[in-house]
Structures are given as structure tokens and as C-alpha cells.
Design brief:
Helix content is 27%, strand content 15%. By secondary structure, the protein is α/β, with parallel strands linked by helices. The protein has three domains: 79-378, Catalase HpII,  Chain A, domain 1, CATH 2.40.180.10; 456-533, Hemocyanin, N-terminal domain (Up-down Bundle), CATH 1.20.1370.20; 538-695, Class I glutamine amidotransferase (GATase) domain (Rossmann fold, 3-Layer(aba) Sandwich). Strands 1, 2, 3, 4, 5, 6, 7, 8, 9 and 10 form a ten-stranded antiparallel β-sheet that branches. Strands 15-12-11-16-17-18 form a six-stranded parallel β-sheet, sandwiched between helices. Helix 4 packs parallel to helix 10 (449-456). The longest helix is centred in the middle third of the chain and has 18 residues, at 354-371. Its EC number is 1.11.1.6.
């Protein structure tokens, strides 16, 4: 019998919708289906007397409410999930029997959950943090989970240190702060005592940890996995997700302000993109390599703190996925989705990476804690969408026990599912031997060389941001010895970085380099793929323009901007002194999406100030309006403006001779189009570098 889930793209919540076409009444019932007559007042004895226990509707309602919460994820608690579809366009049949990677043109339903790591469920989106990028592929051979991050390496090499890492990063147990940030003693204490984390620290202190949107992030499976072909031969593979819209991040000062203006910035961005019919897309790429490459590679391919540079093993694009389906219900889908690294399908296997091996235990275990029953696989979002049969039964909340009298195998009734040696999952027959021991391999000992490679691969502005981030974070550490110990590690990574941070922290002298287990290498070449700026979009597609207007603003300029942003496949929002909007020069009202103090410029990729003389005069004494302009300027954004807006620049502290190529006058028809074209690099980084040079 066909499985009811298979072929249904979105299993939804598994429940009934309460929303009927308008006009049709839905009667409120208890969980037992009993119609309710009064949902406003509990049953009382007399008009002002005590509430009666007999009121089963009241008791059931409160009882259910009391049990609404489940434990939040111990890490990655704050997340946002969406549905999508993966389509393969290049077969890997030579390497694997996994049909999801061999059947060209086949569309595989997916569910992806993005997340931050350290913050709790109610924390803000723009924390400086790693972003989770977990993908569940509902393949014809079962569910395949690729539980990745937006950073291709990890802090630690062995899963046994994961609880320590997370304890150190999360709020301190006595005071329960700071929330959703690593800028505190415990985190940097652990890190500075854990040299293997240095490569990851470079990534986390880079702008990768403050992405502009989930839509502009890469994703990585991190570990080396195996592909296994029909002959049982194995090829190593690393998985990459590359966003079609290019990479983009925000500035730290911007992140701090976004968290205040819109703590839901990333989830709202994804929701809006899907709702407006511009769903994000990623290419799925693989780095394939064999044992011979693994042998000659400078580092151990089992070490999750190392990448394989794309210059050494190119990323081959084999397919793409689009995330175009928002959830019907956050709890049923995003909260209850259970990713497990152990979920692989025939043709995909594990390597001996000790972090991956530990993860394979942790995820299944945590789902039982979170979802309360081994039957969490019965929840629609977790159920496979291919036929599924076995003799597992009972337990809390069992939704689909097998029918009939036979629940064991072998049996002589001639019924029930049986193993299939031909199509069933086969583990790769790796030949292993050696003594049992608790040991860290020598081949994992180089902690600094790739950290240096990452640093030298960045553009000057990105290097500056790494230095700024380290100074910021370490300045929040109260213990000077922790600050110094970190700088001693940086001395092994790059002398310039160590100097910058030492100076930023006001250290009297540069600490001696931390003793290194093996001499750091200085000969690894830079890798283009590691820079966000070098992989920027160079177009406005998918970005958002904020258009600040006042009464009397030039209607033709506003219309030109709206047309230009549409032509670039971007979006826009109108910001005005009042939410009711503004009456433009042609007498027509334009609706506002934001009132000026709710529509800070940090929410946009570029801004335009279309003001009348009177409007500019009014905004020149308005703090949020002045912040709008001074922040946009400080965050290196492109700013278009009509002539009266010069007054606002001036009052925002930007003198006429500070106005640079990123400040774009809108005078003639066609200027809006030219402005949008000029916005392609998204930020005018020279502005920030100049400010720093002037200050030095
Ligand atoms: Fe993990 C959740 C990614 C190491 C233990 N992890 C979790 C999620 C992501 C990652 C994206 C959220 C999944 C979701 O959206 O529901 N984790 C990673 C990556 C790692 C990594 C890329 C290193 C390469 N994790 C890691 C280790 C352990 C865990 C070493 C434990 C030994 N991770 C968990 C967990 C979580 C989790 C406790 C919490 C909630 C969950 O699993 O479902 O089991």
C-alpha cells in the first residue's frame, strides 16, 4: 500500500486546519470532540462563588496549556525551518548508490532549519555566532540528514569535549548571563586553553558569524563522509551549499542595532522572501577525494578543524535546492523536526572523524529527551515519505503500530517485512585494527596553519573586522590573563593580527607566542573561496532598499527608485514620519511600511532619502531620522538623496566634504537606475578604512 506521506511535498502539521472558508462556522470542541457552549466563563457555584472541579472543559484547557512547552534544544535552540526541493543535475553513480545523488532530474523534498547555536529560543537573530544549516532530504531510500553549519570547521576535534565547549559558551551557571554571546570570560578561558579551536575562532570572529540573511550564507557538511558505490568501493566527500545570491554579512555595529530594531530579522527576511515569490536557492557541491589524496594532504581529513581548500579539491556542483515553502505551524514542523547525523541512506556512509562518531550518538539521544518518545519518527515532519515497514511497536504516543498478529521475524506466517541484501543499507567494510586507547592522533596536532591561511585570504576590510571582533570580545573578559593567553595564540597565527589585538587591548607588550605542538606553517597560499567580499554578489538582487519619504517628496523620483529596484529583482520599503504614509508632490498618498523610528537604516542594504524642503527641515531635528542617515553612512551603505536631504546629512554630522562616491544625488531621470547599479558591491568599504586611517 502506498505510504500516505510519500509524494506529498509538505506533510504539514498532521492536524486539521481550524480555518474554514469565510462564512463557514467552526464549532469549538473539547479534545474529545464535545461542542463547547461557553468559552468565556468557568463553571461557578452561584454568581460570585468558587469554580467547580466538574468543569471538564476548563480543566482540559488549562491542563493542555500547562504542558505546551517541550525542552528547547540544548544547542541551536533558536531556529527557523522551511520546506524546499532538491534537484540533481549531475549523477554521482560512479561513486554512490544513493539515488538522491544518481537520478538526474529527480526532485527530492527537503526541510531545512537554520539556527544560532548559543542563544536560547527567545534570543535575537544577529548574535555573533555560528549558524546551523541542517537539511533533511526525504529520499526514496529513506531520510538523509546533513546537519551542517555555515562554517566548514569546528571548535573541537573530539566529541567528548562538546559539553565543555557548550557549557563555556552558554551563560555562566550561577548568574545565567550573558545570553547569546561569546564575549565573556568562560568562553575565552576555554578557547584559550584549547588551541585546536584557533582555526574556528578565525571564522567566528569574521563577518561570517553575523550574516545579513540566511539567504546569503554558505552551508557545509563539515566532516569527511563516504560515498559507497555498487561494488562497495568508497570515495570521501565533503558537502557544500553555495547560495545563488552570493555571500553577504553585516557590520558588528549594525548587528547590535538590528537586534534592537528587529530581533527576528533573519526569520522575517526568509519568510518575506518566500511570501513575495523570491525563494532563495543554493547549489549543492561536493569535494570528492580518495585515500591517495587523503594520504598526501597536509592535514588529516578526519580532523574537523581543517578544510580542504577548494584550490586543492574543487567543489563540483551536482544539483541545487530551492527553499520555497514556509511552514504551516512553527511548533509542529520547526520545533519538532529532529535531525540526526546518523540518518544516512544506502550509498552514503561515515568516516572515522571522532566528532562525527560522537554526534551519531548525541542526536538520537537528544530527540528522545526533547520529543519525549522513541516514536518521534511518527511526527509528520520526521516521518520518511517512502514506504516504511518494521516490527518496532508501542511506546508513548505510538501512531502507527503494524497491523495483524505477526510482529516478529523470522515467522512462518509468510507475512511481514524482511531484510533485503540487494537494496538494504550496507556499512562500508573499512578494515580497522589497533589497540584500544584514549589518544589524540599526531596528525591532528597543527592548530595554527589553517587559521593563518584563513586570515591571509581575507581582504583588508575583512582582516580589520576580525581584529575588531577579537578586541571587542576580549575587552569583555574581566581577567587579563585570559586576554593575554589569547593574544599569545594569535602570535602563532599572524604577527599583524596579534599586534592589532594587543594594541586594541592596551597590552604593554606583545606576549610570547603560545607553545605550539608543531611548528605553524607559513607557506599555505591564500584561498579566494574563504573571503565573503571576494564572493560577494555584485548585484542588488535579493537585497532591500529603504526609501525615506516626507510629504511633498518628488513623486517621479520615488517612482523611478521603485522601478529600478524591481528591475534588479530587489525589494523596497517606504519609511515615513507617519505610518499612514506621505502625500507626494503629485498629490497622491504613498503608504509607509515603517514609521521612521521603527524603520532604522540597519534594516536595509541601501537607502534613499527622497525629501521635500519642508520634510528635510522637520527631520533635521528628529533623532531617529538623523540616526537613519548617520548609521547608513557609518555602515558604508550607498545613499541616494534628493537635494533638500543635504540638510539632513549635515545635521547627522556628515559634512559636505565627507560626502563620497557612495552618496548619490538623484537629479535626473535615470539616476535611480544608475544608483542601483552603483550599489552592486553593496558597501563602500573604503569609507570605513578611511575613517580608521584618519583616526590613527
Ligand atoms: Fe550539533 C544540534 C550542527 C557538533 C550535539 N548541531 C545541531 C544543529 C546543527 C548542528 C545545525 C541543529 C539541528 C536543528 O536545527 O534541529 N553540531 C553541528 C555541527 C557540528 C556539531 C556542524 C560539528 C561539525 N553537535 C556537535 C557535537 C555534538 C552535537 C560534537 C555532541 C557530541 N547538536 C548536538 C545535539 C543537538 C545539536 C545536542 C541539539 C538539538 C539537536 O541536536 O537536535 O544533539
Amino acid at each position: 500500500m502506498a505510504d500516505p506521506f510519500y509524494s506529498k511535498r509538505n506533510p504539514g502539521t498532521g492536524g486539521e486546519t481550524h480555518q474554514r472558508p469565510s462564512g463557514e462556522e467552526t464549532v469549538l470542541t473539547t479534545q474529545q470532540g464535545v461542542p463547547v457552549a461557553d468559552d468565556q466563563n468557568s463553571l461557578k457555584l452561584g454568581e460570585r462563588g468558587p469554580t467547580l472541579l466538574e468543569d471538564f472543559h476548563f480543566r482540559e484547557k488549562i491542563f493542555h496549556f500547562d504542558h505546551e512547552r517541550i525542552p528547547e534544544r540544548v544547542v541551536h535552540a533558536r531556529g527557523y525551518g522551511v520546506h524546499g526541493t532538491f534537484t540533481l543535475n549531475k549523477s554521482l553513480a560512479k561513486y554512490t548508490t544513493a539515488q538522491v545523488l544518481t537520478e538526474v532530474g529527480e526532485a527530492t523534498p527537503m526541510f531545512v532549519r537554520f539556527s544560532t547555536v548559543a542563544g536560547n529560543k527567545g534570543s535575537f537573530d544577529l548574535a555573533r555566532d555560528v549558524r546551523g544549516f541542517a537539511a533533511k532530504f526525504y529520499t526514496k531510500q529513506g531520510n538523509w540528514d546533513l546537519v551542517g553549519n555555515n562554517i566548514p570547521v569546528f571548535f573541537i576535534q573530539d566529541a567528548i569535549k562538546f559539553p565543555d565547549l557548550i557549557h563555556a559558551a552558554k551563560p555562566a551557571p550561577d548568574r545565567e548571563f550573558p545570553q547569546a554571546q561569546t564575549a565573556h570570560d568562560n568562553f575565552w578561558d576555554f578557547i584559550s586553553l584549547t588551541p585546536e579551536s584557533m582555526h574556528m575562532i578565525m571564522w567566528v570572529m569574521s563577518d561570517r558569524a553575523i550574516p545579513r540573511s540566511y539567504r546569503f550564507m554558505e552551508g557545509f557538511g563539515v566532516h569527511s563522509f563516504r560515498l559507497i558505490n555498487a561494488k562497495g568501493a568508497s570515495t570521501f566527500v565533503k558537502f557544500h551549499f553555495k547560495p545563488r545570491l552570493g555571500l553577504q554579512s553585516v557590520l558588528w555595529n549594525e548587528a547590535v542595532k538590528i537586534n534592537g530594531s528587529d530581533p527576528d530579522f533573519h526569520r522575517r527576511d526568509l519568510w518575506d522572501a518566500i511570501e513575495m515569490g523570491a525563494p532563495p536557492e543554493w547549489d549543492l557541491g561536493v569535494q570528492l577525494f580518495d585515500e591517495a589524496f587523503a594520504e598526501r594532504f597536509e592535514f588529516d581529513i578526519l580532523d574537523p578543524t581543517k578544510i580542504i581548500p577548494e584550490e586543492q579539491v574543487p567543489v563540483e556542483i551536482i544539483g541545487s535546492f530551492v527553499l520555497d515553502g514556509r511552514v504551516d505551524n512553527f511548533f509542529a514542523e520547526t520545533e519538532q523536526v529532529a535531525f540526526c547525523t546518523q540518518n544516512v541512506v544506502p550509498g552514503i556512509g561515515f568516516s572515522n572523524d571522532p566528532l562525527l562518531q560522537g554526534r551519531n550518538f548525541s542526536y538520537l539521544d537528544t530527540q528522545l529527551k526533547r520529543l519525549g518518545s522513541p516514536n518521534f519518527t511518527h511526527i509528520p515532519i520526521n516521518a520518511p515519505r517512502c514506504p516504511m515497514h518494521n516490527h518496532q511497536q508501542d511506546g508513548h504516543m505510538a501512531m502507527r503500530n503494524p497491523r495483524g498478529r505477526v510482529n516478529y521475524e523470522p515467522n512462518s506466517w509468510g507475512v511481514g517485512p524482511k531484510e533485503d541484501p540487494k537494496t538494504g543499507y550496507r556499512h562500508f567494510a573499512a578494515a580497522e585494527n589497533g589497540p584500544k586507547q584514549q589518544i589524540r592522533p599526531e596528525s591532528f596536532a597543527d592548530h595554527y596553519s589553517q587559521a593563518r591561511q584563513f586570515f591571509i585570504s581575507q581582504t583588508p576590510i575583512e582582516q580589520k573586522h576580525i581584529g575588531d571582533a577579537l578586541v571587542f570580545e576580549l575587552s569583555k573578559c574581566l581577567r587579563p590573563d585570559i586576554r593575554e593567553r589569547m593574544v599569545a595564540h594569535l602570535a602563532n597565527i599572524h604577527p599583524d593580527l596579534a599586534q592589532t589585538v594587543a594594541k586594541g587591548l592596551g597590552l604593554k607588550k606583545l606576549p610570547k607566542a603560545h607553545p605550539a605542538a608543531v611548528e605553524p606553517r607559513t607557506d599555505l597560499p591564500p584561498s579566494e573561496a574563504l573571503s565573503i567580499v571576494k564572493r560577494g554578489p555584485m548585484r542588488f538582487e535579493g537585497r532591500k532598499l529603504g526609501i525615506l519619504v516626507t510629504d511633498g517628496a518628488d513623486a517621479a523620483v520615488v517612482a523611478d527608485l521603485i522601478a529600478a529596484v524591481g528591475a534588479e529583482r530587489g525589494s523596497y520599503e517606504i519609511i515615513a514620519p507617519h505610518i499612514a504614509g506621505a502625500r507626494l508632490s503629485d498629490g497622491a498618498m504613498i503608504e509607509a511600511r515603517q514609521k521612521i523610528d521603527g524603520g532604522a537604516s540597519v534594516l536595509y542594504d541601501a537607502v534613499a532619502l527622497v525629501l521635500s524642503e519642508a520634510g528635510a527641515g522637520m527631520l533635521a531635528i528628529d533623532k531617529p531620522a538623523k540616526d537613519f542617515v548617520s548609521d547608513a553612512f557609518a555602515h558604508c551603505k550607498f545613499i541616494a538623496y534628493t537635494k533638500p536631504a543635504r540638510l539632513l546629512f549635515e545635521k547627522a554630522g556628515i559634512a559636505a566634504d565627507d560626502m563620497d562616491a557612495g552618496c548619490f544625488p538623484l537629479v535626473h531621470k535615470g539616476d535611480a537606475k544608475a544608483f542601483l547599479a552603483a550599489c552592486a558591491p553593496l558597501r563602500l568599504w573604503q569609507r570605513e578604512l578611511k575613517v580608521d586611517l584618519d583616526a590613527a
